[in-house]
Amino acid sequence: MTRFIALVSGKGGVGKTTTTLNLGHALHKMGRSTLLLDANLATPNLGLQLGLMNPKGTLNKFLCKEKGIGMQDIMYKHESGITLIPSSLNFMDFQKTNPQKLTEIFEHLDNLSEFVLVDAPSGLGYDLNQILKNTDEVLVIVQPTLSSVMDALKTIQLAQAHNNTIGGIILNMVHFRGWNEMKKEEIENILGFPILANIKYDKKFRKSLLEQAPVHYLFPRSNIAKEYRKVARHLCLMSDVEREK
Fold first, then answer.
1. Nearest CA among 14, 77, 2 for reference residue 47
2. What is the pTM (predicted TM-score) of this model?
3. Please, what sign has the CA dihedral across residues 103, 122, 132, 167?
4. What percentage of residues in the chain have a pLDDT greater than 90?
5. Which residues contact 99 (CB under 8 A, 6 or more apart)?
6. Pairing between strand 76-77 and 83-85?
7. 214-239 pLDDT, tens digit each
8. CB of 158 closer than 8 Å to CB of 124
9. Structure confidence by residue, pLDDT tens digits, 58-97
């Protein structure tokens, strides 16, 4: 059975897409079949970060039942080994896409891979609600600021209302000492769930954008990559426990 995991946040720009790519690659390198789905219909970036500027097949075209576009036409494999389904960057495609039809893609993806990581839109809008109706679990991405954490708290409550398990928190873009940032313990106390990884700010992220490949692929021995592998191992362990029940 496929495990659908949404990567969510309250605030935009905290690193959901980057986390989706790197966590997906970490799971792939552990031998776990993983598919990445860009379900951010309004501002998709998953394919863009891997160099897919204008893919012929997209989630939008599949949901709109465009002639000649089937499941195999919207799945792309990156040189890193990642398999992903991008959404369209075209505004007209966005306007034609009904978010209510998102359920269809989840039905088609069930049993195709062990994990489907869903890059979800930020905020608490209709699109996110449609996604959370179809996912099993969420990973919450936050930056160490009070506004990011408080927005994430509302997202957690929304996910719980849709019966999603809260897998944990990924703390992203942590700077070095001297910055006015919230401490790990403070964030865990507010959100009520453990921090699974502490991703520090690093120029390697900029390099990965230029190279159009995940940091975990380009710099597998880096501390950043080690943090993503911690989350991947956690997901694999939980998946194995469920399988043994």
1. 77
2. 0.95
3. positive
4. 88
5. 41, 126, 127, 130
6. antiparallel
7. 999 999 999 999 999 999 999 998 88
8. yes
9. 999 999 999 889 999 999 999 999 999 999 999 999 999 9
What average pLDDT does this structure show over 182-205?
Answer: 95
Residue tagged 């489907």 (tokens) = 116
Q: Where are the beta strands (DSSP E) in the chain?
A: 3-8, 34-38, 76-77, 83-85, 115-119, 137-142, 165-174, 195-200
What radius of gyration do the chain's Cα atoms show? 17
Q: Name the phi and psi angles at 41, rounded to 5.
A: -70, -30
Between CA 95 and CA 91 the distance in angstroms is 6
Copy the structure tokens of residue 153: 């708290």
* Token pair recorded at residue 139: 């990973």
Which residue is it, tokens 């500027």?
A: 53
Q: Which two tokens stand for residue 113?
A: 């891979």
**Pair of tokens at residue 160:** 């719980």
